[in-house]
Amino acid sequence: MSDKTYAGVVLFSSTGKEILTHRCLLARFSKVFKKLFDETADLPVQHKINEFDTEIITAAVEFCYGKLGAIKDKEIKLFEFAEKYFIQELKTLFFIK
User: 19, 24, 30, 90 — which has fewest CB within 10 A?
Assistant: First the structure.
């Protein structure tokens, strides 16, 4: 997603780069994001993720959009991201492989 007009969420990576996405998508996959969105009235929701770089955050978001190829060669960091944000479907995928 590259257009802020329809982005419900702006995630900022450890380097400050913006990753645009939809609230409903992240809330479906992550209880942590759902809680954040439920507690925030501002749109778009802005959230800084200091622990992960743009590549990892983008790969996690792309996984939520169904792009499984996005996780290749990033498994360890993505598992850590999935742990932090309780993205169970992403964590489970690593055990299936």
Answer: 24
Q: Tell me the H-state helices in the chain.
A: 23-29, 31-38, 54-64, 75-85, 88-96
CATH of 4-96, one of 2.40.50.140, 3.90.320.10, 3.10.180.10, 3.30.710.10: 3.30.710.10
What is the pLDDT tens value at each position of the chain, 97 positions in all?
555 665 799 999 999 999 999 999 999 999 999 999 999 888 899 999 999 999 999 999 999 999 988 888 999 999 999 999 999 999 888 765 5
Identify the CA nearest to 60 among candidates 96, 32, 40: 32
